[in-house]
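During the reporting period, we have paired protein sequences with backbone structure tokens. One record among many follows, to show the layout:
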Amino acid sequence: MTPPDRHSPPNGDAASGDSLLRLEHGDVYVRQDGPHRAPVLLLIHGSAASSRSWDAMVPFLTAHHRVIRIDLPGHGRSAEPADGDYAVPELGRRIGTVLDRLGVGRAVAVGHSSGGYAATALTERRPDLVTGLVLINTGPGMDAFIAPGPTAFQPEQWPPTDERIRLLAGTAFRAGYEVPQELVDELRGMSYHAVTAAMQASVGYLSRRTLPDRLTDLGKPLQVVFGDQDRRWQPSSAADYLVVPGAKVDLLPGAGHTPILEEPARTAELVLSFTELRTGRSPGTA
């Protein structure tokens, strides 16, 4: 018999609470905030991160949205997949299953970094669920990738020290930005296999077909946000998304690869402007 999901029950109309959903290949952690009956915003983090990477931005989104965050398999509080499958299309399938279990019929999917690939894969698998996409510093193709320096982890060096993690994670932020300790701790808590398999899966997905090509076929409304100081992906590559019909591309001056932490208010403003077009509700209305 499958154990029941563990939930923090909603309080009235609020969707706030934590859940651990029992899925076929491993438990998936879910966090919900905001009004239960409001339009859904699904937030998907990038590789070697977790749902906590959205903490600074969520308070700007919950006035008129039910905000759903998940920890991808092997990240944060979600189990590693029992079948070892980190492939991006499989992530899309599992995220769709999570939304089904939560009773969500429609959502705007927001992905940061490689989380944008999972959001795209969800849309490929379940176009009925996704009404629009927001990609935040998601590289469009491998030719835009900025290769990291000689700080990559090796199996014999796992778990890494704080210093090693900060050296590698430093390029995920604008120059001079201090890497949050909670992110350092979370990456160290992951297995070496989870970190490398997730990154390899993202490279494989993007190498098979660029994101603009995939998104053009999907025909979904698209908002792209890119920090103009990104040190992981060439900021100029944000323009590659303009081939997608109707795509809107915004550069955030002074922001690096992770504007959801560096500039949460400005990033949220762009997301809310996009969702206003999808729902017909202004962020400032009751």
The helical segments are 88-101, 115-125, 162-169, 181-189, 192-208, 211-218, 259-262, 264-279.
